[in-house]
Amino acid sequence: MTWITLDKAKRINSVFDVKIESYKDNVWVEVEKDNLIDLLKFLKEDPDFSFKMFIDFTVVDYPYHNPRFQAVYILYSPEYNERIIVKTWTDDTLPSLINLWKGAKWAEREAYDMFGIKFDGHDNLVRMFLWETYPYYPLRKDFPKEGFKDTFLPSLNEGKNIPSHDYDPYHTAIPTLEDLEITERKRISKKNQIVLNWGPLHPGTHGTIWFLFDLEGETIRECDIILGQLHRGIEKLSEDLTYTQIIPYTDRMDYISALCSNIAYVNAVEKLLGVQPPEKAKWIRTMLAELQRINSHLLWLGTTALDLGALTMFLYTFREREKLMDIIEGIAGIRLNSSFLRIGGVRYDLPEGALDVIKHFIKDFPSRIKDYEDLLTKNRIWIRRNKDVGIVSKEDVYQYGLTGVMARSAGVPYDIRYIQPTDAYADVDFEIPLGTVGDAYDRYLIRMEEMKQSLRIVQQCVEKLEKLKDDKYLATENPYVLPTLNEVYQSIESMVKDFTLRIYGEKAPAGEVYVSGENPRGELGFYIVSKGEGKPYRLRIRSGAFYNLQIFPELIKGRTVADAVALLGSIDPVVGETDR
């Protein structure tokens, strides 16, 4: 994937008065707020540009700039395989984009929730993650990291003869039952027989997602989703962390595929810093990402089948998943949240015997996939529960910014590994499976084929890594890269470098980049704004699961509650990533 060239971007000036800038290969145009909608419509509909796919929208707060907030829109052109960023400024309001791209609905809700910006023309502007009565906007720069302690909550242990030690009776606000009821009523109004709450603690939701169904009998007429039960403010916390310190936070987003999240983030930072990891590190990353993808798809297959009544499949997939977890633990040291990646490479070299274990898995796994397919692919119950459920079209992909399996099930070949390859993806041979119908059954078939393709990539990585046995795995010669522990012990220069990077951070040049990776749940992107300090001024996380989940309320209309279980399983969201 390439960004629009500066020469092509300058052609926009013949129609609109815009300011054009670039950093690295990222190109953005800045326009006045009054001309924003006209410019975006032009970029979407003009055949010479055709930026018809909505990727992301976010806001950056500059308290000392007038106007204060910078709005950032990221678009993609499927015809030309190009990206562009469009920016504008505002103090309080922006025009809504929901008539151009339906996928802007939740992004605008999030901007309202986090920054307090209102959107003219939005059909239901409510908070995205916080409850409706919450009075603050957390991603503003004047919002403290610990929040405002304005709620009185006395200690139950405090008494005449019992000291309360250092207990502070004032805390940050938490929602009451009344607050939650107000939030629920703002999202959906009862028009039919009953409003059903599904989640946030139902096992079928695969996480803390709160669904609201307006039912007529068992048929869902209206639906909305309340997120935020797992919102931890990772974007806010990142503003006070060095680039290396942020790596463990990316683990905890999509905890089912932590290594993939690590890799997407580290690639973005390396582009910002101009760091080139060694060849061996690139192949290790690619191999681990594909093992993690298989791991993630196995969890999806087992839990989705269990939701629909196939207990055997759950037991089968966890048998193979345990082998993969052992492999990951043996290489990274931890099974789930390993933080194995480093800016400039990986934390450790491959341990002795790791490639032999992986080769054994490569030899064993194809027969296991055949067992899964024999059980499910032609199973009449499985087909009836998935066929024609949640059909998405190419236009839906572009409108909602659907990525990953959701996009490919509609026949759109949108795969970051192919259109913007990082690490060793440009050097491996694999195919991108596509659907023909766009339903839940297509998404099942695609994930099954993706596991086979991932295994194919892993095999190529193993063959390459056997030839790179003695090569470096970390570019410690780069001034932005932390030295290894041995180097710190053996060299005073490395010790000083380690101290400086850990205390003051990687002082990145002023600029901004957007880089994404192909997470098992779709495009996981990181938009980083640097002001030349050792920590990001703004870190925006573009969640594939967030945008894919947004289409659920539309797809479920007119279907039953039983279909909601199958549809949600086929979307495969992870709440740690949607909520961040």
Strand element count: 18
- Share of residues in helices: 40-55%
Q: Mind summarizing the main beta sheet?
A: 6 strands, mixed
Shape: globular
Strand content: 15-25%
Task: Indicate the mean pLDDT.
Answer: 88
Please work out how many helical segments DSSP would assign: 21
Low-confidence stretches: none
Short structural summary:
By secondary structure, the chain is of the alpha+beta class.
Q: How would you summarize the topology of this molecule?
A:
Blueprint: E1 2-3, H1 6-10, E2 19-23, E3 26-30, H2 36-45, E4 53-61, E5 69-77, E6 82-90, E7 93-95, H3 104-115, E8 118-120, E9 149-152, E10 170-172, H4 177-187, E11 194-198, E12 210-216, E13 219-226, H5 234-238, H6 247-251, H7 258-273, H8 279-307, H9 311-332, E14 341-342, E15 345-346, H10 354-376, H11 380-386, H12 394-400, H13 405-409, H14 416-419, H15 440-467, H16 485-490, H17 492-504, E16 511-519, E17 522-530, E18 538-542, H18 544-550, H19 552-555, H20 561-571, H21 575-579
Parallel strand pairs: 1-6, 3-6, 7-8
Antiparallel strand pairs: 2-3, 4-5, 5-6, 9-10, 11-12, 12-13, 14-15, 16-17, 17-18
Name a few traits of the molecule.
alpha+beta, 21 helices, 41% helix
